[in-house]
Design brief:
The chain is of the alpha/beta class. The chain contains 14 helices and eleven strands.
Length: 426
């Protein structure tokens, strides 16, 4: 099961409904307005929404070279230390679809003598809207992307954490005790971490991205026309095009570079009749695609979708050895209105423990930045074939990786426009 896909009643994923789908839908709305000459009104609406959400103050943009410490408000302070876990309680979790192992939930409930109830959402926009309405009530908000943490803090949707209930944070990579997007981990603990690279079918393609001077140029091969795909994501695919051109600022505000990304993707379409989808984890194993722009977590579980008799070693995943590629992570938070705040803290702590992290990874394929989650351990546990250890995210990826982060509103719209020109034209 894959957290970047939409699931319905336990059935196979709905193609094209990714965790970033809300951004593409927003881009589609923007394109419609732009087609009617409404760019300025859309920008005004976006700006008004941002100002309304933040009390007429622009949010800072966290960057590795500009870390942000979010404020703790007088009317939204951490819970006191030394409290007992709530009894006969139902811990209510709000999460992406299929983004936590049900066994982890069951085992947590047994340990703390409580029930665990999960309600799912399909987009971050949907989740934030429901939480802001005050009409829903949950304890834990899972999978919070780092580009919306500032908004959830400013709106006081999440509460600052009491660290005394989360000692297992020490099992995480030390960078996460003060990540640039939430200095001093005041509101978040890490959840999953992943990279974006290139997957390919080794039995159909004789070379590999690692043999190229720039592996991100690998999809631009006309001889594989009809067998090349890129991710349906308005940040990921333009970023691929930027890197193909040797540009590694994936948060660029330069209109010329954004235009270059658009034109490079249009060139890719002309060369290869490129597909756009988020089904990398099935399209590569089944051979529908031979080259796919991919998320590491998807490819870590892709071997489970191979046809019977096809060995796992036909699947390759490349991410640059120097770590100079897209890296991202999601987080776990406790909601301000939590009825069971102690249990909520304990649940965050539970998922930071190595055995529980391994159990969770075995379900969704997405790594957690916990010490002990190593390539050797994952192979030994049977979670990952040895031939796919390149999908494992390493500690140095946090330091060297390229982060796709929150953009200024006008720049974000420019990225969306560029992607719409490509995706609507294919």
């Amino acid at each position: 099961m894959h957290p970047k896909e939409g699931w319905h009643d336990g059935k196979p994923p709905i193609p094209g409904v990714s965790r970033r789908g809300f951004l593409r839908r927003g881009a589609g709305a923007g394109a419609a307005l732009l087609g009617a000459g409404g760019a300025s009104s859309l920008l005004a609406a976006c700006s008004s929404e941002l100002l309304a959400d933040t009390g007429h103050r622009a949010l800072p943009l966290p960057r590795p070279n500009n870390p942000v410490t979010w404020p703790i408000y007088a009317d939204n302070k951490p819970i006191p230390s030394g409290m007992q876990a709530e009894r006969n309680a139902t811990l209510k979790i709000y999460n992406w679809v299929a983004y936590v192992n049900p066994k982890c939930l069951k085992d947590f409930g047994k340990k703390y003598n409580c029930n665990v109830e999960v309600t799912t959402f399909n987009t971050m926009t949907e989740a934030l809207a429901k939480l802001s309405s005050g009409k829903v009530n949950f304890d834990v908000f899972m999978g919070v992307t780092n580009d919306v943490i500032g908004k959830t803090v400013a709106q006081k949707l999440i509460q600052p954490l009491n660290h005394s209930y989360i000692p297992n944070i020490g099992q995480n990579w030390r960078e996460y005790t003060s990540p640039f997007y939430d200095q001093r981990w005041q509101y978040t603990v890490p959840y999953t971490i992943y990279t974006t690279g290139i997957s390919w079918r080794k039995d159909h393609i004789p070379d590999d991205p690692g043999s190229w001077p720039n592996g991100y140029a690998f999809p631009w091969q006309s001889k594989y026309a009809g067998k090349v795909a890129i991710l349906d994501d308005y940040r990921e695919s333009p970023s691929l095009a930027l890197m193909k051109n040797g540009i590694y600022d994936l948060n660029t505000t330069d209109p010329k570079q954004i235009t270059l990304a658009r034109e490079s993707l249009l060139e890719l379409a002309r060369l290869t009749d490129v597909h756009i989808d988020n089904n990398d984890y099935t399209n590569i194993p089944t051979g529908q695609m031979w080259i796919h722009h991919s998320w590491s977590g998807d490819m870590a579980a892709s071997w489970q979708y191979l046809p019977k008799g096809v060995p796992a070693d036909v699947i390759g995943y490349w991410f640059p050895s120097d770590g100079k590629g897209p890296t991202a992570n999601d987080t776990l938070t406790v909601l301000r209105g939590a009825q069971n705040p102690v249990l909520a803290h304990l649940f965050l702590n539970y998922l930071q423990d190595l055995p529980n992290a391994l159990t969770n990874i075995s379900y969704n394929g997405y790594m957690q930045p916990v010490y002990g989650v190593t390539p050797a351990r994952l192979v030994h546990e049977g979670i990952l074939p040895k031939t796919l250890i390149s999908t494992v995210v390493l500690e140095e990826n946090f330091k060297n990786g390229l982060w796709e982060l929150q953009l200024p509103i006008q720049t974000d719209l420019a990225w969306q426009q560029a992607w719409q020109v490509v995706s609507l034209g294919i």
